[in-house]
Design brief:
heterotrimer; A alpha/beta (289); B mainly alpha (296); C alpha/beta (292); A: 289 residues; alpha/beta; four-stranded antiparallel sheet; 36% helix; globular; C: 292 residues; Rossmann fold; six-stranded mixed sheet; 11 helices; 38% helix; transport (chain C); membrane (chain C)
Chain lengths: 289, 296, 292
């Protein structure tokens, strides 16, 4: 295990603005008391305003648990989580609801088909976070229109149902929905892995713009390429631990942990088999040991 | 929703039949050509000018008895269904949201209700509350309510774990908001199906209780009662049960049709089918038995 | 991990370096596929030759006709789709002349396939090993005990760590990557000469995808299996294939040796696919490392 990613981003080097998200020594356990399993081991992570942090992990690495813990959907068993300076580790439902209604943190799910209610029109889904806060519908719809424009969708979609949209369009709606409360932090859990390559690129472009416009992003994915193309900083999650972190260039260019090396060696590239098969087999055995 | 149901042929048929039945229930007793309780000297008579549908074993006019009994029959079975709906569906939905204790208690109550012998329970409650149609129907409704509890709980559970509900929670939505906005539309179709079924079962229950002397007292007519009494004289008048049976069948059938129509216009299944067709023209018939290793 | 020797595997053991001049096991000639319901032509002419031990890749997004082309070669086109023109020859036999009985004989024994979502191709209530043994008993006429032993060998051949244990497990006990291996084991059980992998690694994690791709390359080298790899990801195809077809809207936009297509793409769509990969792939970081 290498050192936890506590290094501040290069951008705010002079004055270190307070982080939007600060996770320290987070442990999360799952399951009933007798068969408890640990999903996260001492994860520490800090995200500065307007910074994009990529978290790379595969099935079972605990990446979704991390996202859900940050959003208060699963309880932490040790460690602390600070969102915008507010310690949310011991928050009860009521406090969480108050925090959520301020719209500071938003979440984008992997599967855009299931994250939009199939019985509600796109307009209803988009304005929901604002209506929940008591914003007038007319005003909310106005904002929805500008956001659709921002994710390059026409406002003619407002009256449609999710089933009438393509996967890429639905995911852009999901992103617009997350942005409607003007959040300071958006957590994205595998936002592009259900999409084909043209739609994937489009969402990644939108995320890049977002990052540039001052929203902090936590971009969770198993796809090293997508994450490295967007994130300022990359952290690798393996079996519930952050095993490596650094700039995308460092992590991809000179991976230190065996798992990261396997990950980089496994990603298919246009140059053909980058790391040869024997080398990958060696790394697998090393990790299994 | 109503417009979408009426867009379907089956929906239109169902609504038409149910409207006729409802009119019968409201106006039927007024139209009865003769006194439904008046006996005559011609028991088990065939169709004639004075008795369109003949007479029963006491010489009473069958048409009049059918029309007069329609109100009690329809209201009775509706009462059963509505009671079951309120007693079952509301806690069913809430059991998912109101925490472990509520869930545990309601689940045990439902188990108890299922385990109770129906007739014993009915007789006991009638003894407590007094004999009458309303009491009998309320008891029946409570006893049928586990169906609604289970159906609505299952439907709610499948929605409660869905990502769009989580997305709403992350936006700070309250339980009331989530139920109204997301859960209700998904739970309605299965509940509608259960409701239509219960209305059908209601007719039969009304009549079987009548047989035991609970609820509607003879000689007051009900559809189910007519069916039961006519069945005893099949030897003399084989087609006698046809009229009440047809009425019950039509009502139950229309109820089921309506339930199907509701499911078709609001169900996620139908919509998912359309989605699949649109999203993946390339992957038609994923269920096609493709040979993995040439097993067939 | 013990590598089973080549002779443990069913099927022919081909010479290590198959030459391109060997007669093709699969030959597709200007195949067009039409939807009879609408009368529209969906696939407008696909041609390629596949010699033993070689790999052809088809790249395209959904709706490009790549899956229909595969299904046509397997003789399992969806209802009211038909091959309206061109010929497909499997091991020298024109498939349009095949009777259903001959098809049954051919599938599994000569041509076989694996698809995305392996779980849906296995019976959840039967042990996975028994399902492979069934293929062996039906296709190769093995006795119960022999079939079982062979199935375990096959599970070992697809690099499953504890084949005896996996044999007795059910689908829900296995991960996606393991299921895909089981499916590959079933697909190669009767020793086919051609294996079609249609988006077989799409739903898998990157490291698991690499394992499956490595396994396919391994099988190809050891048994002379000819592969058709279908993917929406250009890089997956680049990893494994000698020849690439780039498809869009039922049309083959570009076709040629992988090196040529990737190195000097002629069609704009291919260029776009490559550009997207350069930006959101690992290439730029790896290139930086190579040229300090």
């Amino acid at each position: 295990m290498t050192r936890p990613p506590h290094t501040p981003p290069a951008a705010g080097a002079e004055e270190n603005p307070p982080p939007v998200l600060e996770v320290t020594g987070l442990d999360v356990h799952y399951g009933p008391r007798r068969r408890r399993r640990q999903a996260l081991h001492g994860v520490s992570l800090s995200v500065a305003p307007a910074e994009t942090v990529g978290i790379i992990g595969e099935t079972g690495s605990g990446k979704s648990t991390l996202a859900r813990a940050v959003l208060g959907l699963v309880p932490a068993s040790a460690g602390s989580i600070l969102i915008d300076g507010e310690n949310v580790t011991a928050h009860r439902d009521r406090q969480w609801r108050a925090l959520r209604r301020r719209g500071v943190v938003q979440y984008v799910f992997q599967d855009p088909l299931r994250s939009l209610d199939p019985d509600l029109t796109i307009e209803d889904s988009l304005v929901e976070p604002l209506l929940v806060r008591g914003v007038a519908r007319q005003e909310a719809v106005g904002r929805a229109r500008t956001l659709l424009d921002r994710v390059r969708l026409s406002d003619g979609l407002l009256t449609r149902l999710p089933g009438e949209l393509s996967g890429g369009q639905r995911q852009r709606v999901a992103v617009a929905r997350a942005l409607i409360t003007e959040p300071r932090l958006v957590v994205l859990d595998e936002p592009v892995s259900a999409l084909d390559s043209a739609n994937r690129v489009q969402i990644l472009e939108i995320l890049k713009e977002l990052g540039a416009s001052g929203v902090a992003l936590v971009f969770i994915s198993h796809d090293l390429g997508s994450v490295a193309g967007v994130a300022d900083r990359v952290a690798v999650l393996y079996r519930g631990e952050l095993v490596e972190s650094g700039t995308a260039r460092d992590v991809v260019g000179s991976p230190r942990h065996a798992y990261t090396r396997l990950l980089v060696g496994s990603a298919p590239t246009l140059r053909g088999a980058r790391t040869d098969r024997a080398r990958r087999a060696e790394l697998r055995e090393l990790l299994d040991a | 929703m109503v417009r979408r149901i009426l867009g379907l042929t089956t929906g239109r048929i169902a609504v038409a039949i149910l409207t006729v039945i409802a009119l019968l229930a409201v106006l039927g007793p007024l139209f009865a050509p003769q006194d439904p309780l008046a006996t005559s000297d011609h028991p088990l008579a065939g169709t004639s000018g004075s008795h369109w549908l003949g007479t029963d074993y006491l010489g009473r006019d069958v048409l009049s008895r059918l029309l007069d009994g329609s109100r009690v029959s329809v209201l009775g079975s509706l009462e059963v269904a509505v009671t079951a709906l309120v007693v079952g569906a509301v806690p069913g939905i809430l059991s998912v949201y109101l925490g472990r204790a509520f869930e545990w208690v309601t689940l045990r109550l439902v188990d108890t209700l299922v385990a109770l012998p129906f007739l014993l329970f009915a007789v006991a409650v009638i003894a407590l509350l007094g004999n009458g149609l309303t009491q009998a129907m309320l008891v029946t409704g409570v006893l049928v309510s586990p169906l609604f509890y289970r159906v609505s709980r299952a439907a709610t559970l499948s929605v409660a774990r869905s990502q769009y509900v989580e997305a709403a929670i992350i936006s700070g939505a309250s339980i009331g908001w989530i139920v109204r906005r997301h859960v209700w539309a998904k739970v309605l179709p299965p509940i509608a199906v259960a409701f239509a079924q219960t209305v059908g079962v209601g007719f039969v229950i009304v009549s079987s209780l009548t047989f035991l002397g609970i609820g509607v007292q003879p000689p007051e007519p009900t559809w189910g009662g007519l069916l039961a009494s006519d069945l005893g004289y099949l030897g003399q008048k084989p087609w006698a049960p046809v009229a009440p049976a047809l009425l019950i069948m039509a009502t139950v059938w229309a109820g089921n049709l309506l339930a199907d129509a509701i499911r078709d216009v609001s169900g996620e299944a139908g919509r998912a089918l359309i989605d699949a067709r649109r999203a993946r023209p390339d992957r038609l018939d994923k269920t096609d038995p493709a040979p993995a290793g040439g097993t067939r | 991990m013990t590598r089973p020797s080549a002779d443990l595997l069913p099927g022919r053991t081909a010479p290590a370096g198959p030459s391109a001049s060997a007669s093709p096991v699969l030959s597709v000639r200007d195949v067009r596929i039409t939807d009879r319901a609408s009368g529209r032509e969906i696939v407008h002419g696909v041609s390629f030759d596949l010699p033993p031990g070689r790999t052809v890749g088809i790249v395209g997004e959904s709706g490009s006709g790549k899956t229909l082309t595969c299904r046509a070669t397997l003789g399992i086109l969806p209802p009211h789709f038909e091959v309206s023109d061109g010929t497909i020859e499997i091991d020298g036999t024109d498939i349009s002349t095949l009777t259903p009985a001959r098809w049954t004989e051919l599938r599994g024994a000569t041509i076989s396939a694996v698809f995305q979502d392996p779980a849906s191709y296995l019976n959840p209530s039967v042990r996975v090993g028994a399902q492979i043994a069934e293929v062996l008993r039906v296709k190769r006429g093995l006795k119960r005990r022999e079939a079982r032993e062979r199935a375990v060998e096959l599970l070992r051949a697809v690099h499953l760590r504890d084949p005896e244990l996996v044999y007795a497990q059910y689908t829900y006990e296995l991960s996606g990557g393991m299921l895909q291996r089981v499916l590959i084991a079933a697909a190669i059980a009767a020793g086919p000469r051609i294996l079609i992998a249609d988006e077989a690694t799409t739903a898998l994690d990157v490291t698991v995808q690499a394992e499956i791709l490595d396994l396919l390359a391994d099988l190809r080298e050891r048994t002379g299996l000819a592969l058709v790899v279908v993917s929406h990801d250009l890089a997956v195809v680049a990893q494994l294939c000698d020849e690439v077809l780039v498809m869009r809207g039922g049309e083959v936009l570009e076709q040629g040796p992988t090196r040529t297509v990737l190195g000097a793409p002629r069609h704009d769509y291919t260029k776009l696919l490559i550009a997207e990969h350069e930006q959101y792939g690992l290439e730029k970081f790896l290139d930086l490392k190579e040229t300090p």
